Amino acid sequence: MARRVTIVDVAARAGVAISSASSALNGRSGVSERTRSRVRQAADELGYVPSLRARSLSAKRAFTVGLVVQRNVDVLESDPFFGAFIGGIEEVLAADGYALVLQVGSDERQTLGRYRELAANNRVDGVFLNELQVDDPRIALLTELGMPAVAINSDPALASDFPSARQDGTRGVRDAVDLLVGLGHARIAHVAGPEQFLHTWQRRRAWHDAVADSGRTPGRVVTGDFTYESGRRAADELLTGPDRPTAIVCANDLMAVGLIMRAEEIGLRVPQDLSVTGFDGIALATYLRPRITTVQTSPRALARAAATLLLRRIAGESVEDVEIAPAALVVRESTAPPPAA
Amino acid sequence: MARRVTIVDVAARAGVAISSASSALNGRSGVSERTRSRVRQAADELGYVPSLRARSLSAKRAFTVGLVVQRNVDVLESDPFFGAFIGGIEEVLAADGYALVLQVGSDERQTLGRYRELAANNRVDGVFLNELQVDDPRIALLTELGMPAVAINSDPALASDFPSARQDGTRGVRDAVDLLVGLGHARIAHVAGPEQFLHTWQRRRAWHDAVADSGRTPGRVVTGDFTYESGRRAADELLTGPDRPTAIVCANDLMAVGLIMRAEEIGLRVPQDLSVTGFDGIALATYLRPRITTVQTSPRALARAAATLLLRRIAGESVEDVEIAPAALVVRESTAPPPAA
DNA sequence: TTGAAAGCGCTACCAA
DNA sequence: TTGGTAGCGCTTTCAA
Q1: Are A296 and A281 in contact (CB under 8 A)?
Q2: pTM over the 0.90 mark
Q3: Taking CB atoms and an 8 Å cut-off, how many pairs form between chains A and B?
Q4: Cross-chain Cβ contact A86/B74 below 8 Å
């Protein structure tokens, strides 16, 4: 096996000092154009590839960032956000020679442990703060660890020193409510996500305020957990009692699907007897009939923005929050005027 | 910021040489029990965490493995295999202090490039060879690069030096066919995956042979691409002509879903007019009505087996292929006797 | 069994 | 602008 080509070889071939070769290769200033080009050429000729390990050790950077997904492993399967989000991150990282380390924690304790490990090992130069929670313990931890991080969809109100990439979803939710109100609905309920998540409250508040602003009284709120099954349960809770809502705004598509399926089993037709809206814009929402009216988010673009932010932050630049185009309402077939009373 | 605790500090505190400390910490032989315990204690007291970077540089290992997913980024979203598989890998890696680097390639050229980079940078100690193709170019590449790898569901017939973790799916497909034959179906078609994939042929052959073994003539084969949309297209192709099949075995669940949806639009009821089976066992297959009869795979367990194999392989052990329990047929509501002729 | 020292390949500082 | 060199923190010979 041929010996690895090192920067020593390159410097020797170019007839310059190692330090000059290093500076030249890394595009640092203080190197004459002539030296730079000679070094470049020597590197090319030798097929030089810098050793990431040595660079890491000496530059004290890992050239890697981390994403820790906290999710019961079984539930990961049905999370469509995941794939698109990772694809977006990768697009940005790859261009900069960075790589993504992906970790999975099944509960909070484990997740925090993973962050600690990443930091202790210096395995990554920064991490994404995804799925923010109310009083998220990771914020204190990452601050304590001094780990650069970029939040995803953090709330502006959230006091944290971490920059954030955001996509507003509240406007889409408001549009959904306005659509329903415009169609004549008066009893509009909400199926929310778990109370611990920031986005649960963002969506819930948007629904609440929009209904209130229309002069109607916000309907019942049922708390689900973003799964299909919890959508079904929400249907049972909301649709079997008196004063049944004529429209339901769900905090994500998967619950909307579950809710619709269950509603139809109960004997309600969507959208004739009941209008339903979702949130996310997953492909599944277009597979079923009726296709679901939803708020279309852009996980990939959001991930791209977040990754860009993180790399800048790691490079030491001071960065501002970034906001991509808001998630827009996509009107499909799960919404219609309420049944004549 | 406190200076990092290094092995030098530990050695000093324990009153031994650095090399002894290293040997002691790494459980190597040739260290007296007394020295070992003193070093351990010193390390504990100081809260010593070895530097992954320095270890990497000197030990020439990255303590990281790679998974390159080749998929159009947009399609990644709806791949449920992905999440479960990664969860399984993570479970095993985490226990050994290894981490997973995840990369995404949108086409073959890019994917091969990612493998090359991983190797050139020594970013990983090994990789997973997922979604094997016929004459997969990655095999030659990884061999050339000398990169340890473990294949997922490779074909025994595939000549490759890489060990493989496998879950047999052919038995499940045969069981599906047998089920249909037992119900009285005579015209059983198949919706296959893209011809480039090994598992496409594994499933296709299983379907073909099972039908033939039953004394029936294998029906038509339509090639899809594992997407929902291609399932719909397959329905159009198979169900609109003469000699319509009464049962269709699909190479994955998503196509089965698309096919069923389209079939119902065309006016065929499933399972009364048409029986359909899937493959994978994704959650979605249980959301819809009828719930889909399918072959239930175990991506998480398969990933665990593959990761275990890879770590062993990296450690230099010679490893044999591993086969986990075969994917079993789960009979649900999308299969019934054919309509009376 | 223990210890000294030579790398691993690169960056960064400082002197020339 | 260039070059020499001291680390980065660990593993691994090789003597003692």
Answers
A1: yes
A2: yes
A3: 141
A4: no
